[in-house]
Specification:
This protein has 69 residues and is mostly helical. It has helices at 10-16, 21-28, 32-39, 47-57, 61-64, and strands spanning 5-8, 65-68. The protein contains five helices and two strands; from the N terminus they run βαααααβ.
């Protein structure tokens, strides 16, 4: 079976919205480091975090994260 990887577009959407990592983190209620590690693929967000990020950016969660083969 192929290994699935998480595709992440969070940084693109965040910068297009004109937000810093710190500003997005504040909106979601997490640390700037958490946003940074998600953007860099170091940390896989939990479902509540992924939904919170999407909501804070006004997009669907599928616009930020998807599975790749």
């Amino acid at each position: 079976m192929a290994e699935l990887r998480l595709g992440i577009r969070l940084k693109e959407v965040r910068t297009a919205a004109g937000l810093t990592q710190a500003e997005l983190a504040e909106r979601v209620g997490v640390s700037r480091k958490t946003v940074n590690t998600v953007e860099n693929g170091v940390f896989t967000p939990s479902t509540p975090l992924a939904l919170g990020l999407a909501r804070a950016l006004g997009v669907k969660v599928e616009d930020l994260f998807w599975l790749e083969d």
